[in-house]
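Students often ask why inverse folding is considered easier than folding. One informal answer: many sequences map to the same fold, so there is more than one right answer. In these notes we will look at a single instance of the problem. The structure comes first.
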């Protein structure tokens, strides 16, 4: 059975789709207006860059989009879509941990919406998506862990 047809492989493909969606969102945000960036939670320093150094902001956001796309490629590689990328285990776990930690803001976002209805409900969606991508990446990586062994040792021929 192809690795991508197993549950861990499918979870890694789900994480890849999430990463590619985040990369696409950042591509859109690079060229969207200030209000759109504010809606998606851009910090004040990014909004300042948006007003003052638009070219620098576009470069930074495009770099972020490239990074998220790279994370997606690692997930596809982990799912067996193509040969294993360097440091596959390390990257999958690191990205999964980062997303999961970001997703752990979900309870705080829910409490904030309950206490202050004006608080952006979109942050609940962002936290839930982060948690889903993180858990999918970690669970998929753990499920395929033994398949990620380093290249087979070469026999020395003397």
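Output (designed amino acids):
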């Amino acid at each position: 059975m192809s690795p991508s047809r197993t549950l861990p492989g499918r979870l890694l493909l789900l994480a890849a789709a999430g990463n590619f969606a985040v990369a696409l969102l950042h591509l859109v945000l690079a060229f969207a207006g200030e209000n759109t960036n504010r809606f998606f939670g851009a910090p004040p320093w990014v909004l300042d860059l948006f007003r003052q150094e638009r070219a620098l902001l576009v470069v930074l956001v495009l770099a972020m989009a490239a990074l998220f796309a790279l994370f997606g490629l690692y997930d596809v590689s982990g799912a067996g879509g193509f040969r294993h990328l360097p440091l596959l285990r390390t990257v999958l776990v690191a990205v999964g941990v980062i997303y999961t930690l970001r997703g752990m803001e979900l309870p705080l976002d829910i409490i904030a919406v309950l206490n202050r209805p004006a608080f952006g409900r979109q942050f609940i969606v962002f936290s839930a998506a982060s948690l889903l991508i993180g858990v999918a990446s970690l669970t998929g990586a753990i499920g395929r862990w033994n398949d990620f062994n380093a290249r087979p040792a070469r026999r020395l021929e003397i």
